[in-house]
Write a structure and sequence with these properties.
Length: 476
């Protein structure tokens, strides 16, 4: 199969031969061809909820192939079918796409091209997006009619013309997909508390029963935090944040015994790091990476610790691990870039997003002099195209970092969100919610659509004031 490039339908990747780009695509691509999570360069699943298809996008390929076409959606109505190779979007010939995080992904990835085409069509009053696909008999043009009309507004999805419908779809997804036992698809270590937090953040009492089912599940499975094992710190932090938010909202003391037990137990579970400081790993069993530990679960625990203090609990978690936290921080006064490092030896500029934002959030929630927070935000603004490369998962890390910005420095959130309207518009299927598109790290094992919809519903709590973690400092 030939075009302006040489397109070969076979298994494999891409290669450059002089001025000739050779790419190979699958006649019948399936989800099994996707690459592994946690930072591998694909192939990745690229979904467009707005246009009604999923696709396989590959690193440095100048086209992408359709995996699936949803019945009754814009792509199906336009005649698209699995195996079609998309080579052009709205008159723009696709260039080799980068799956790696960074500016190239942000500006020229196939996900960005699709999203910006949708955004431009809505802003220009056009009713459709045109795709050119390559088939056995040559190039064909398809016109995909958009299910929305009208410009989304500068701060979509936080506000603007389509924000209410977007919120309703995410709420509808969360309510519809919650199981009777209070869980959602994906990992129970995160999604149960995440979903309950997201519904609590709507500030709508209509979701009280759904939240209570999740609480019952969590209490049944983890009634005593001091007995949690394995990757306990991740689960404890999300569950603890939920219980603190409920205590702050209800004030009846129901969750205080659990919160107090967790706060008293956590300092007894640390281990001495390579640098002689007490540190957390994934759980109480020990420290990973030759006792270098890691900051990501610690950052979540610090938010829990700060909320516990707001509940009146004399938590000392931050004080206990503060030497490690400051050692892991890339301190600008020592020539650093300001963000929170992976650990004390790896002050990276690639996986910093969520743990940097969460540490800033914890500082502000504590109400003390937030000495680190101002510099913690600097790299987040400078390198936002890395937000989906947050430690071991792209989501909820991306959403949590944005939520932290809203609380710590709202104007920064309002500078960054407009730059990502394309991503929300592309992933959103009106009437359904967000369709899963691979982040740069993680997420498939966390529940794909579950972690995406629940994470961004939680982010929308920044607009309701329904959670302490999503409320600007001057509002608390």
């Amino acid at each position: 199969m030939c075009s302006s490039d040489l397109e070969l339908r076979a298994r494999g990747g891409a290669a450059t031969l002089g001025e000739l780009l050779v790419t190979r695509h699958h006649e019948a691509p399936t989800r099994k061809l996707r690459g592994k999570e946690n930072g591998k360069l694909g192939p990745d699943q690229l979904s467009s909820g707005m246009l009604g298809f999923s696709a396989l996008t590959e690193h440095q390929h100048a086209a992408f192939s359709l995996l699936g076409v949803r019945e009754g959606g814009p792509a199906a109505k336009a005649g698209a079918r699995p195996g079609d190779v998309v080579v052009e979007v709205d008159g723009e010939r696709l260039v080799p796409s980068s799956i790696a995080p960074g500016w190239e992904w942000f500006e020229e990835s196939h996900e960005a091209v699709l999203g910006r085409a949708i955004q431009s069509a809505l802003e220009d009053g056009r009713a459709s997006v045109k795709l050119v696909v390559e088939r056995e008999r040559g190039l064909e043009s398809l016109s995909l009619k958009l299910p929305l009309r009208g410009a989304p507004g500068a701060l979509f999805p936080l506000s603007g013309k389509h924000a209410k419908r977007f919120r309703e779809d995410l709420v509808g997804w969360a309510v519809r997909e919650q199981r009777k036992n209070g869980t959602w698809p994906g990992t129970n270590a995160v999604n149960v508390a995440m979903g309950a937090l997201a519904l609590l953040g709507t500030d709508d009492r209509a979701h009280s029963d759904a939240i209570e089912r999740s609480v019952d599940f969590l209490l049944k499975n983890n009634p005593e935090p001091s007995k949690m094992k394995g990757l306990a710190y991740w689960q404890l932090s999300f569950q603890g944040i939920l219980f603190c938010e409920l205590e702050l909202k209800e004030g009846d003391g129901r969750f205080l015994p659990w919160i107090e037990e967790a706060c008293n137990w956590l300092p007894t579970t640390t281990h001495e790091s390579k640098w002689g400081t007490q540190a957390f790993g994934h759980g109480p069993d020990g420290l990973p990476y030759d006792n270098k530990a890691l900051m990501a679960p610690t950052a979540h625990l610090l938010v829990f610790d700060a909320l516990a203090r707001r509940c009146g609990v004399e938590s000392r978690v931050f004080e206990h691990v503060e030497p490690y936290v400051r050692h892991a921080w890339s301190d600008p006064d020592s020539g650093g870039h300001g963000a929170m490092g992976y650990n004390g030896s790896y002050r990276d500029k690639g996986e910093f997003w969520s743990r940097t934002g969460l540490v800033a959030l914890a500082e502000v929630l504590r109400g003390d002099d937030a000495a680190m927070a101002p510099s913690l935000l600097v790299l987040m603004e400078e390198r936002h195209p890395w937000m989906l490369n947050s430690h071991a998962y792209g989501e909820p890390g991306g959403a949590l970092g944005l939520l932290s910005l809203s609380t710590v420095k709202r104007e920064l959130l309002e500078r960054i969100v407009p730059l990502y309207r394309w991503r929300f518009l592309n992933a959103w299927e009106p009437g359904h919610g967000l369709r899963y598109t691979s982040p740069h790290m993680g997420a498939p094992y966390m529940g794909e659509e579950a972690i995406l919809n629940l994470s961004y519903l939680l982010l929308l709590a920044t607009e309701t004031g329904g959670l302490a973690i999503a409320r600007q400092a001057e509002e608390r």
